Amino acid sequence: MTIGWYNGWSPEERLATLPIQREAVKSGQLQRPTHCSICGCMGNRDRRADDAVWFHDERYDRPLEPYPVCRRCHRLLHQRFEQPQPWLDLIAQHGQGGPWFELLSLDPRCQFRPFAESYPQGLPFPLDGLPQ
Q: Is the pTM of this model over 0.85?
């Protein structure tokens, strides 16, 4: 699988967050996610399972502020530009009128446009009130 541009960050910039996040988990600065912030599922320890929960970044300049997202929701999130209907169905099922994921753009140009241009108000951080 190849990684592309997202919110104005290059593949190299995106991949650079991984060792930072791994070290932060190891040191206790960042908690390993246990619940998906979109569908709420509890994470499976098998990273290949659809309900495995991992980190998703919207802002790669803030690697210690990832969103916990299960593999299934993560896949739909990134496929939303080419296949919007499954993403819209997920939002209809799990959205509550304001969570961060409901605010994500469906415009494929936002993959290359800087985050601040696509989201001038930013995105809310979902961890408050989520089970850990």
A: yes
